[in-house]
Amino acid sequence: MTATLTRFVAEPPPRDVADALERLRHVRDVARIAVMPDVHLAAGVCVGTVVATRTMLLPAAVGGDIGCGMAAVACDVEAGVLADARTAAAVLVGLQRAIPALRHPGAGPRCRPRWPNARCPPPRCNRSSAAPPACSSARSAAATIFWSCRPTTRTACG
């Protein structure tokens, strides 16, 4: 079975990255792959991807430069909230204010996002198989912000 590939990038990746992603799509047990704006090829892995498997853990799928400029926060909100252009623009401005760009430990004092001001409700938890859409946002070191909203399923509370 071939894994589903979702890209959050502005343009097609370089050929070597595209080839690595295609190989990863065919790895046994890989169900979904999300490609982030900072995707790049590293030693043995395609950094800037999120790989969902069905039953296995793939420790080698984590690159050596993990945490090099990506942050993701999941919020339980309806995707339809972003359909209105003014609301979507206001959310984007809020994200730009709340999420720091290009902060490295050697660059000075750590800058932490002001999450209490982000107005993300705590995740809802229920034991049914249907859950509200999960929306996540991320901003890379290059200041790329994206939203991913899709229906999710939840089988247990955690």
Architecture overview:
The structure is a single chain. This protein is an alpha+beta fold. The chain has 2 domains: 58 residues, no CATH class; 81 residues, no CATH class. The protein is built from 2 helices and 6 strands, in the order E-H-E-E-E-H-E-E. The chain has a 3-stranded mixed sheet, covered by helices on one side. The longest helix has 14 residues. The protein starts with a strand and ends in a 6-residue tail after the last strand.
Arithmetic mean of pLDDT? 66
How many β-strand runs? 6
Instruction: Give the fraction of residues assigned to helices.
Output: 10-25%
How many separate helices?
Answer: 2
Unreliable stretches (pLDDT < 50, length at least 5) are: 107-158
Count of domains: 2
Please state the CA-atom Rg, rounded to the nearest Å.
Answer: 17 Å
Shape: elongated
SS class: alpha+beta
The largest sheet, given as strand count, sense and whether it forms a barrel, is:
3 strands, mixed
Strand content: 25-35%
**What's the N-to-C terminus distance?**
29 Å
Widest beta sheet: strand line-up: 1-2-3
Order of helices and strands: EHEEEHEE
